[in-house]
Amino acid sequence: MDALQEVERLLADMPRADKAQVLQWIARDLGDAFPGVEQVPEVCGGEPVIVRTRIPVWLLVQARCLGATEADLLRNYPTLRAEDLANAWAYSRAHREDIKEQITENEAA
After folding, report:
1. CATH value at residue 82
2. Whole-angstrom distance, CA of residue 56 vs CA of residue 22
3. Tell me, what's the pLDDT at 21?
4. For 75-95, what is each residue's pLDDT tens digit?
5. Half-sphere exposure of 90 toward its Cβ, with a 13 Å CA cutoff?
6. Residue 104 falls within a domain, yes or no?
7. How far apart are alpha carbons 109 and 87 in whole angstroms?
8. pTM of the prediction?
């Protein structure tokens, strides 16, 4: 059995959360790519947002800093999935200074 077939077999038996973790590892290995987070100049001024939405990563990070739980965020933003939050947290860990700056800029507005 070659490596790709073995990976396919292993993935078939994994729970979704583990598959999401593997996907994050692969994305990091491929470079500064974060699945589920995109930056498009015409969307939210080019700030990183959750794909399929216009929800900026900084907003989710700030809400969590202010005491919102993941359950609160999922309830308040029905288009979000738990996987989206995992992607947002991973992105924010890798871009701490950028996220802090975005929070500061948006609080001043």
Report:
1. 1.10.10.10
2. 24
3. 87
4. 999 999 999 999 999 999 999
5. 22
6. yes
7. 26
8. 0.70
